[in-house]
Amino acid sequence: MLPTSEESPPDETEPGPADPPEAGPSRWAWVLPAVVVVIALSLLSGALGFVLGVGRPPARGSTDVGFLLDMSVHHEQGTALANLDLINGESEDVQVYAREVLRDQSYELGLMQFQLGEWGRTREEAGPTAMRWMGMSVPIAEMPGMATAEELDLLRAARGRDADALFLRLMVAHHEGAVHMASYAAGHGDDEDVRRLAARIERNQTLEIEELRAAGARTGLLT
Hints:
Helices cover 65% and strands 2% of the residues. It is built from 6 helices and 2 strands. 28% of the residues are buried.
């Protein structure tokens, strides 16, 4: 019922605005300590890496650097042999493999030069001694499979089937020498990329030796 004049209506005054909540800690109060911890751990990791030698480029006498330098020289001669057959040979059954050698070894040369550059080294550091990293030092021109100066002169002078036959003989020996070196590097290198490249060279050139011999048998150029 309605209130009488003696009764006061209930207080219907609207409540005022609520008091603002107390301010909590700034989000930076949580972020900054985490950033400091990350930076401290990074500095500690770098310091440990310096002390332990982690991340340093391998030494000149290491398997990794020695293999890249010596195999670069080896591959350079391999591409030269392939080029000479493409210029002087005539058998397409042989020259298809010369082009394969030129393509694959040029690509691998690029990989080796890039890695050497990453370590602050150049191909010019190769020689005069090779294969010390394998425990069998030889003059760089006498690495296994390397054609002699006289053999290179013969290939330059040869023409037609004579050039193809000499190319097959020299390239089989060249690949055999490279497989010998690559097999050692694949098993003894410290750098994962170097071991992977060495394994690739060992695998591919082992297959190519069989292909070259088969081509020689088909054409009668190798007996």
